[in-house]
Design a protein that fits this description.
The N and C termini lie far apart (151 Å). The chain is 23% helix and 28% strand. Strand 15 and strand 16 form a beta hairpin. Strands 1, 2, 3, 4, 5, 6, 7 and 8 form an eight-stranded mixed beta sheet that branches. It has a four-stranded antiparallel beta sheet with strand order 10-12-13-14, with no helix packed on it. It has a two-stranded antiparallel ribbon with strand order 9-11. It contains eight helices and 34 strands. The protein folds into five domains: 159 residues, Mannose-Binding Protein A, subunit A (Mannose-Binding Protein A, Chain A), CATH 3.10.100.10; 111 residues, Laminin; 39 residues, Laminin; 92 residues, no CATH class; 54 residues. It is of the alpha+beta class.
Length: 559
């Protein structure tokens, strides 16, 4: 509000803008011109730049109040639109999470945290420019609207200056006109302060002319010719206080101006100023002198402390901000950051795929803002969260009837000698491949085999039962009988070979002997019939005595 008070204080004789091409007003450090001609955004921007300024910015509520005070003096009943210096450049895109939605100011700081959108701009990456709408009955809105840049609208130019000079004072019927550096024509209204570089032309009643320029000298802003002007004219304190700002003292036919305590007479001989009020230690940042004294100002992002001298940082993160994740306060501003597991891309936080560079031994699963490792079957995740270690399945529960052997990522069941693992991978069954061997086993071995087979089952392994405790005994018996069977098979095979090797030649000899005996017997019978002497036949002793004995023994065995 102090700035608005000063703004209104510096505006004098501000006439209506009907029929006037433009009008000017100034604050302690800036001037503004309202142009009542409708042009495109680019033409309006070029016009302001040509005069040393730029399209007005509305970076905060204070600048919006200045614009509202300026436009409220326009004697118009209908709704008007004015360009402001906010633009979405070609190639940039609308960003829904930013206060300016991706638009940038044409001058000074490109971004700001303040916005006053009537409605969000459409999602686009084409060129767009911003207007403010002013409707006198509801002029305090000044809502922003984004649209095409070629459409015509009114515009407001802004000119920043390092300092201002107070207006010159003349007496009598003299006249003074000011030409600001941003205008080719003299200003239409009288102002209390004028920007650096302003030309002042003073014309006295005797037609004498004086020229003065606002310059900076000795760290002060002052006129090259401060006055007083037109001193030859008679003056009186009875009329307009003799032109004096404070006290008028009549000195014969002339006047002499004095100032109140704490004020000093300026070089023009009429105005008064506060003496040395803005020293180096008066304000931490900026000291502004007004008619009622001085005030301290702070830059954007800071606020005046309780002592009205120092500036303290405003924590925007405790106020409204546009950060989606984390807000980090900085001196005079703030910045947005992302939580762990996210990365900033084009002003937005996107999930970071940690699995692209993970330390997981087996597999990685990406999640929003994080990730997790998991292992293949038969493994478990180590306490470091990355490594996979083998699970000893044999140590956790009874998995095999006989013996469990752990392997990398799994396990296997093994059986004793003479048995093999059943198709279910758990039970043991007898490994009998030659059924014919059962015939060569004794009755006792067959009984043992039957008992062993009856003790095995093809059913899957279930919960331990009392019968299961007999398994070691069954395995021992089965192993013993299997060994006996193998030994019997080896012995019988050898005996059979020996017997066959001895009997076959003997049988051949017997066959030959019998053949010879039969032949001779037949011959003897024929001879007996001829002689009829004996009904018996006798074989002559043409055989080997050993063969005869063998032959007799064979006959005896047959009987």
């Amino acid at each position: 509000m102090p700035l608005i008070f000063l703004l209104l204080l510096f505006i004098t004789n501000f006439g209506g803008l009907n029929g006037i091409e433009h009008e000017t007003m100034c604050t302690p450090n800036a001037c503004f011109t309202v142009h009542m001609e409708k042009v495109s955004f680019d033409k309006a921007s070029q016009s302001c730049f040509h005069n040393g300024g730029y399209l007005m910015t509305v970076r905060d509520k204070e600048e919006e109040d200045i614009l509202h005070s300026l436009l409220s003096l326009i004697q118009k009943d209908k709704r008007q639109q004015f360009w402001i210096g906010l633009k979405l450049h070609r190639g940039d895109c609308v960003l829904a999470d930013k206060p300016l939605r991706g638009f940038k100011w044409m001058s000074g700081e490109k971004d700001s945290h303040y916005s006053n959108w009537n409605k969000d701009p459409v999602d686009t990456c084409t060129e767009r420019c911003v207007r403010v709408s002013y409707n006198p009955p509801d002029g305090n809105q000044l809502k922003w609207t984004a649209g095409a840049c070629k459409g015509p609208s009114l515009y407001v130019c802004e000119f920043y200056f390092q300092g201002m000079c107070n207006a010159l004072h003349v007496s009598g019927s003299s006249h003074i006109s000011y030409t600001a550096p941003f205008s080719a024509e003299p200003l239409q209204n009288q102002m209390k302060s004028l920007p650096l570089g302003t030309y002042a032309e003073v014309t006295c009643s005797d037609q004498q002319s004086h020229l003065s320029v606002c310059i900076r000298r000795d760290d002060k802003y002052q006129w090259t010719v401060p006055g007083p002007f037109c001193q030859t004219e008679h003056g009186t304190c009875a009329r307009n206080n003799g032109g004096c700002a404070h006290i008028c003292q009549q000195d014969w036919d002339r006047v002499k101006c004095l100032c109140h305590h704490g004020h000093a007479l300026e070089d023009n001989g009429f105005s008064c100023k506060i003496q040395d009020v803005c020293s180096v230690d008066t304000c931490e940042y900026e000291c502004v002198v007004g008619e009622s004294g001085h005030i301290c100002k702070c830059p954007n992002g800071f606020e005046l402390a309780v002592n009205q001298r120092n500036c303290s940082d405003v924590d925007e993160c405790q106020q409204s901000h546009a950060c989606g994740h984390v807000c980090v306060n900085t001196p005079g501003s703030y910045m947005c950051a992302c939580r762990d597991g996210y990365e900033m891309i084009n002003g937005n936080c996107h999930d970071l795929d940690e699995c692209l560079h993970s330390k997981c031994t087996h597999s990685c699963l990406n999640t929003a803002g994080s990730f997790s490792c998991y292992c293949k079957e038969g493994y478990t995740l180590f306490k470091d969260g990355y490594s996979c270690v083998d699970v000893n399945e044999c140590a956790t529960e009874q998995r095999c009837h006989f013996k469990c052997v752990n392997t990398e990522g799994s396990f296997i069941c093994v059986c004793p000698e003479g048995f093999r693992v059943h198709a279910n991978g758990v039970n043991c069954t007898p490994d009998v491949t030659d059924v014919a061997l059962n015939a060569s086993l004794g009755h006792e071995t067959q009984v043992n085999m039957i008992e062993i087979v009856s003790m095995t089952t093809a059913e899957p392994l279930g919960p331990p039962t009392p019968a299961d405790t007999l398994l070691p005994q069954m395995v021992t018996i089965a192993a013993s009988n299997a060994s006996l069977l193998a030994s019997a098979m080896v012995v019988n095979s050898r005996v059979l070979i020996c017997v066959l090797g001895s009997v076959i030649p003997l049988l051949l000899i017997v066959a030959v002997t019998l053949t010879i005996a039969i032949v001779r017997c037949r011959r003897s019978r024929k001879e007996a019939k001829k002689s009829a002497t004996d009904s018996y036949c006798w074989v002559s002793s043409g055989f080997d005595p050993r063969l005869e004995k063998l032959y007799e023994s064979i006959l005896t065995d047959d009987l």
